[in-house]
Amino acid sequence: MVWVINFAVKIINMPKNEKIFTDNYKIFLDSVDIPILILDKFDLKTVIYSNELIEKTFQIDKSQKNYTDFFLDENLIKHLSYHLFSFPLHQEIEIDERFFILKSTKIYDYIFLFFNDISLIKKNDMIKRRYVDSISHELKTPLTNILLYTEKLQNCLDESSKESLKVIYSNAQVLKKLIDDILVLSKLDSHELLITPSKIKLRAMIVDIMKELMPLADSNNVDIEILVPSDLEFYGDKKLLHRAFKNLIENGIKYNNSGGIVTIKGLLEKNTIAICIDDDGIGIEKKDITCLFNRFFRADEGRTKGNTKDGTGLGLSIVKNVINQHKGIIEVNSEPGKGSKFKIILPTVYS
């Protein structure tokens, strides 16, 4: 988009009374490889100019000066009418099985609309997701059988063989979790995993998670403290949020010190709910915080007591994606040796 910046700079540096759409500028606009539509800032329906690629990309009637008549595709007109007043505009739209990123910018008395065609990117992403899903499903079935027969063999072997079997079982569990996480992320990315909002009692959900994680907490000698009012309620997808909160609490246990504590707080803030999950464990390096939610990111294993070996590197990516799907935000504050604080802010009503 460098040419857009250069073009904008040229226009901004021109005297206001100089005509913008000279023949030279029209030639320039027609030469770029992105459809451009220019509207009147004071009457957004009025088409001032359209470049040649607009005409090749969409069905239009160039004799019309109102975009509701200029475009012949009713779906595109609906998109423009719905999004045009959201400024600055950055919206993905679908027109006749083609995908565009619709962007806008204001220059003097004009609104510039740019239709960036991302159809090929979307198609490649879809092919990649289908491939990942297919491979993951194919791996999941034999892996489930390995786990099943490993459990059955436990009672048929001597103590030495049982130890070897435990290693096989443990590694198979890690692989199964990795496949499950990949499938969940793939569905979240493609929006195939639909959000099903219902009323959630936060304390009850956290208590359920605590019961699931008590064996891990006991083995790590870590306490869990719940400071959540019993009447705190909000709307969201129970299954997805349970998974996200469990992941954060589990990390707080795994990366804590013996005798440490994980504290879960919940409070109402206007039309949002804040969930804070704090630990007094090993903390996170400042350089790692920016990468924390990246897929397959692993912190320095030398600093994490070897706990990365049973993780997939996808857990926090799932957390971030789930929170995004709920139109919330997640914040992280951490310091090595002083623990980590994760704060999730969600709207009380999912819309």
The quaternary state of the protein chains shown equals: single chain
Query: Can you tell me the number of structural domains?
Result: 3
Helical fraction equals 40-55%
* CATH fold call of the largest domain: Heat Shock Protein 90
Structural class: alpha+beta
Report on this model:
The chain has 351 residues and is of the alpha+beta class. It folds into three domains: 2-117, Beta-Lactamase (2-Layer Sandwich); 121-190, Signal transduction histidine kinase, dimerisation/phosphotransfer (DHp) domain (Helix Hairpins, Orthogonal Bundle); 197-347, Heat Shock Protein 90, CATH 3.30.565. 45% of the residues lie in helices and 23% in strands. It contains eleven helices and twelve strands. It has a five-stranded antiparallel sheet with strand order 2-1-5-4-3, with helices on both faces. A five-stranded mixed sheet has the order 7-9-10-12-11, covered by helices on one side. β3 and β4 (98-107) form a beta hairpin. α8 (202-219) runs parallel beside α9. The radius of gyration is 27 Å and the shape is elongated. The two termini are 33 Å apart. The model has no long low-confidence stretch (mean pLDDT 81).
